[in-house]
Amino acid sequence: MSNLFCSSIGKKLLMGLSGLFLMMFLLMHLAINALLLVPDSGETFNAAAHFMATNPMIKIMEPVLAVGFLVHIIWGFMLTIQNRKARGNDRYASGNKTLSVSWASQNMLILGITILAFLVLHMAHFWVKMKITGDDLLSHTTITIGGVATEVENAYALVNYTFSYLWIVVVYVIAGVFLALHLSHGFWSAFQTIGFSNTIWRQRLTAAGNVYAWFVGIGFALIALLQYIFYQG
Amino acid sequence: MEKNINLTLKVWRQKNAREKGRFETYKVANVSTGSSFLEMMDILNEQLVNEGQEPVAFDHDCREGICGMCSLYINGRPHGPDDDITTCQLHMRKFNDGETIYIEPWRSAGFPVIKDLIVDRTAFDKIIAAGGYVSINTGGVPDANALPIPKDDADEAMDAASCIGCGACVAACKNGSAMLFVSAKVSQLALLPQGRVEAARRAKNMVARMDELGFGNCTNTGACEVECPKGISIANIARLNREFLKAKIQD
Amino acid sequence: MAKIDARIPEGPLAQKWTKYKANQKLVNPANKRKLDIIVVGTGLAGASAAASFGEMGFNVKIFTIQDSPRRAHSIAAQGGINAAKNYPNDGDSVHRLFTDTVKGGDYRAREANVYRLAEVSNSIIDQCVAQGVPFAREYGGLLDNRSFGGAQVSRTFYAKGQTGQQLLLGAYQALMRQVEKKTVKLYTRNELVDIVMVDGKARGIISRNLVTGEFERHFGHAVVIATGGYGNTFFLSTNAMGSNGSAAWQAYKKGAMFANPCFAQIHPTCIPVHGEFQSKLTLMSESLRNDGRIWVPAKKEDAEAIRAGKLKPTQIAEENRDYFLERRYPAFGNLVPRDVASRAAKERCDAGYGVGATGLAVYLDFKSSIERLGEDVIRARYGNLFQMYEKIVDDNPYQTPMMIYPAIHYTMGGIWVDYELQTTIPGLFCAGEANFSDHGANRLGASALMQGLADGYFVLPYTIQNYLADDIRTPRMTGEEKEFVEAEKAAKDRFSKLLNINGKRSVDSLHKELGLVMWDFVGMARNKEGLQQAIEKIRAIKKEFWTNVRIPGDAIGMNIELEKANRLADFIEIGELMAIDSLNREESCGGHFREEFQTEEGEAKRVDDKFAYVSCWEYKGDDQEPELHKEELQFVDVKLIQRNYK
Fold first, then answer.
1. Is A13 within a domain?
2. Strand pairing class (C362-365; C184-187)
3. By C-alpha distance, which of B125, A152, A171, B57 is closest to C560?
4. Max Cα–Cα distance, chain B, nearest Å
5. Strands (E), chain B
6. pLDDT of A32 higher than 70
7. What is the ipTM of this complex?
8. How many structural domains comprise chain A?
9. What share of chain B is helix, strand, coil (3-state, %, to 5)?
10. A4 three-class SS
């Protein structure tokens, strides 16, 4: 096992496993975001946000998530650099006309970089404000959790305010589409890499991957869009 | 029906491994659409020899799609614009009159150019040498029917074993990965009880050799499978991943 | 005839090989390390021999002109490999395989060798299965067999239509295992250009690195030539473009006798020639004759209409079709041996019943099999062959019958070897298609793979020890000895001579010219007058070649025209020897058909009292007639009768 991660398949295993982990995170993230659509001026959402901010389990998972992102990003770059080197110095003058290969699978790095850029913006909008700098919009509000009145940060207000800018919503919609494309290859690819695929499962996994990818991608985009259209003022 | 066509060829010429290469443009006229692509190359070479020029060097041998020697990247695709064939099986009926055809060597760090369109594919031999066999000596083996093998396994092993080692998978892969080649051999032998015995060792050694030789990392694009003249499935790559990870975890 | 001694062990046929092995000399493991063996060629025979030598502990150097041992033309064999396993319980035995092979070879093979071949055939299958060769299997998990031409039992093991590929890959992998263990050193893109003789023994080779153009000297205590046949003398053949007879020819020029050069096999089921730029012919496996039926129109006017493109084969009614093999040979039908099937097709075409644009084709029809078994079964059996056909011809063989015509496929003749596979040069061995040994005047389908692997896995590893046992005190040579220096110089001179001709004709144009002469006069039907003409014509081509060939480029680096020219120079001489041998052999047997010698029904007529011998030709100098020696063939266990497939 010692040098597993030095091998090409070992490195890819890291990509696959971190990818699968991030995909689970995305599902959870989407589930919580969906609460933004509950028409109770953000009470449910704030309750969930409070739970996430205080639950010790989540506290542990937060750095793990960060590591997951970092591994996925760093190894992604590393593998791509190696792959470019393996390709050699000369490129085909007649290009690449191989048919029926998905565009996403050939452009995972580009998609990844775009998502990363979005991630920076996303973190600046929310995570930085919530965890480091603080923000006036986050001033405490009182909600009832399980019958107990609890004072929590008004995360909903921050989100709602952010999504009042059209350009931000547009960025979120675009990012959602890119994310979906990235996931549409990533989902199946992760299973293939860990060895869980064959001719039959490949079809099933590709189908499931596409459903998952577009569900998540459109989901995030849609929530932002709906917030902009229906939840302002 | 067969007809004759005229073509412009852009052919990669490179004197040897060290010197820089370039594209040369040639015209060939009156090529029958019934002739094969390599016969068209023969016509070009005959023309060049008659003009006192050196003919274009390209690898080819059996000309029936089984030896794996031919290796041209034609108009953006390894083995040219047809499916499930090698370059020698490509016929001129796939081209139109007046068309310009780009002819390039395989491009990959693992396959350096030797001359013109000929590349060095000895890396594949080195990978096989690392473990692509069953370690038995001649003689002293059990009767051929001593071990029954389920027909489905035998058939699947045969499908994997039909790899001809041409390198189109590497040429097609944007990562210059040799995973399809390696996985085909690992799969074939892992599926058969005779090869199962040392399956773990084989997977580790062959992958290590592949990495060492500078082939890229598979990103599961599936381009290799599309361009493989023998239609070898990337399900084999999943099996290789499985075999390899299993072997490593057991270490 | 002191020069020709087959050294067949005494005793009854069935015990010769066992007795030989029991009494032969061996080399102990410590000494094996001190002995070098050179193997030239990496096909079934070469690769399996080199792998086995390496496993035994010898130091081996193996050479191939291709980029990898896996490219050798054995890879293209489609149909299968014979063995006397009798798994189907249909009455097969070692003895039956032996008699079938001798009979199939039209009684021109050496009994002892053929018997040994049949004897070891079973071990080959065991060996290959143990290597992981994915032979076809039944649902019960046991090996499947199919039938092939010239046999009434099913003894052919197969791996789809890629049996040669799978067997070669098995041998190649065994070889690469030894390369990894450093018992075998592999030289790729490296061609033998001369054999080095020291004190009358073969002691090494001069080779040319095809990438750099440099000459190399290699020493070996023994040298094995396993470079395949010389079918490309005909230019158009089913052989690969690189297949050549040059290594064998260098052996001949150094004193090894060339046996039965006129025995070349014409394979009945090849895709017909389509035009003047055709570079090679593609074989459609003989196995297709298991389910395909061969026919031509029974009426001349139908044949004419088809040739003119006015009629399709599917429009010819059943009663207007002439299934000529079934008609002439009811017992074997479409599964008669190759020579018989080829001649029958030629006979129909010559009589004006041929189809295709040129009239030089017959149909191979799967209609009744598809009706009987369903398209899926046919697809499972021959799918890859059908696909291959469709890609070349652009016609769907599931719907319209295939068109086929005979083409040169295999050469039974080759370097003469004794029972130990040693040539008349001590220390020079020859294996596989390159030697003449086991197939007589005609090879049965699925027997070439058997012979190549038998020689490499199970014969040479024994017999070469018997020779090397006397050599354990011979020290390695450095390559600086005068014999090496001189041989290298001679080879260099030959190549500079070629480069200095600076004529006008391309190598290929001369090769095509040679091929036409060979096909027209030394092909499927030969006669005295034609052969005499052929010899004249070939000599003229030789002169033209040496005065007017044009080879662009120089001796440094890779020069493909130079490689081809060097091989063509030898093909021309081989062609001449084939014609000389054909002229000498005044009989018809197997692949050698002299029009003067046929029965009233047009079957080959042997002349056993005069020609039951192996003709062995000795090289006497460049412009000298070669000298004929005879190895008289003794038939003890089989009776010489006229082959009858009716």
1. yes
2. unpaired
3. B57
4. 64
5. 4-13, 22-32, 73-74, 77-78, 100-104, 113-115, 118-119
6. yes
7. 0.98
8. 1
9. 40, 15, 45
10. helix
In this structure, what are the phi and psi dihedrals at residue C479, rounded to the nearest 5 degrees?
95, -5
Residue found by looking up tokens 């060597």 in the block = B105
| C355 close to C361: Cβ distance less than 8 angstroms | yes
**A near C: at least 3 beta-carbon pairs less than 8 Å apart:** no
Instruction: Locate A209 and state its tokens.
Output: 């991957």
Name the nearest CA neighbour of A159 among A170, A168, A149. A168
Distance CA C380, CA C54 (A): 38
Q: Both tokens of residue B56?
A: 């274009």
Residues paired with B77 in a beta bridge: B74
**What is the token pair recorded at A177?**
């589409």
Q: Are C183 and C132 in contact (CB under 8 A)?
A: no
Distance CA C177, CA B130 (A): 7
Q: Please give the Cα distance from C559 to C140 (Å, whole number).
A: 53
So what CATH class is C488-632? mainly alpha
Select from 3.30.365.10, 3.10.180.10, 3.30.300.30, 3.10.20.30 the CATH code of B4-114: 3.10.20.30
pLDDT at residue C249, as a whole number: 98
- CATH class label, B122-250: mainly alpha
For residue C181, give the amino acid letter.
K
CB pairs under 8 A between A and B: 154
Model confidence, pTM: 0.96
What CATH number corresponds to the domain at position A25?
A: 1.20.1300.10
The residues facing C615 across adjacent strands are: C630
Partner C contacted by B213 (CB < 8 A): no
Using the structure block, give the residue that is written with the tokens 């046996």.
C259
In chain B, residues 55-74 whose CB comes closer than 8 Å to chain A: 73-74
Nearest beta carbon to residue B235 from set A7, A185, A199: A199
Q: In what order do the strands lie in the sheet with C627-632?
A: C414-415, C258-259, C613-618, C627-632
Residue with tokens 């799609």: B65
CA-nearest residue to B209 within chain A is A7
Q: Residue C279 and residue B36: Cβ atoms within 8 Å?
A: yes
CB nearest to A105's CB, from B177, B221, B249 = B221
- What CA–CA distances, in Å, run from B113 to A90, B15, B110, C239, C297? 10, 10, 10, 27, 52
Match 């659509």 to its residue by tokens.
A37
Q: Rounded to whole angstroms, how far apart are CA atoms B178 and B161?
A: 15
Residue that is written with structure tokens 């001809």 in the block = B164
Taking the CA of residue C238 and the nearest CA in chain B, the distance in Å comes to 8
Look up C70 and say whether it is catalytic.
Answer: no
Contact A87 B75 (CB under 8 A): no
- Ordered by start, the domain boundaries in chain C are 268-406, 488-632
* CATH number, domain C268-406: 3.90.700.10
Which phi and psi (to 5°) does residue B101 adopt?
-115, 125
B11, β-bridge pairs: B24, B103
Amino acid at C13: L
Whether B8 contacts C248, CB under 8 Å: no
pLDDT along chain C (646 residues), means of 10: 83 97 96 97 98 98 98 94 96 96 95 98 98 97 90 92 96 98 98 98 98 98 98 97 98 97 95 88 89 96 94 94 95 90 93 92 96 93 88 93 95 98 98 95 94 98 98 96 98 97 96 96 96 98 98 94 98 98 97 94 92 97 94 94 81
Element (H, E) at B12: strand B4-13
Instruction: Quote the Cα angle for C401-C405-C409, to 5°.
Output: 125
Residues of chain C positioned with their CB less than 8 A from the CB of B208: none
Sign of CA dihedral C130, C131, C136, C141: positive
What residues does each domain of chain B span?
Answer: 4-114, 122-250
| Structural tokens at position B178 | 């040799």
Chain B, 116-155: which have a CB under 8 Å from a chain C CB?
118, 120-122, 124-125, 128-130, 132-139, 141-145, 147-151, 154-155
